């Protein structure tokens, strides 16, 4: 079964690492793996909540619960 690299979209073989394939699975290369890691470190991936910012502040009180 052919998978695609989440960074560039190229096909990625599903072989075992000792066969010389898929050593960076699910990425096609070390470069794509590092590009993805950099995106995580730059906070490029965000999970949006379903609550509005105003609702969260109202529930936690002024200051958003930071103790200020």
Explain what this protein looks like in three dimensions.
The chain has 68 residues and is mainly alpha-helical. The protein has a single domain, classed as Erythroid Transcription Factor GATA-1, subunit A (Erythroid Transcription Factor GATA-1, Chain A). It is built from 2 helices and 2 strands, in the order ββαα. It has helices at 30-41, 53-60, and strands at 3-4, 11-12. It has a two-stranded antiparallel ribbon with strand order 1-2. A hairpin with a 6-residue loop joins β1 (3-4) and β2. It is extended and about 40 Å long. It starts with a strand and ends in an 8-residue tail after the last helix.
Topology, element by element:
Elements: E1 3-4, E2 11-12, H1 30-41, H2 53-60
Antiparallel strand pairs: 1-2
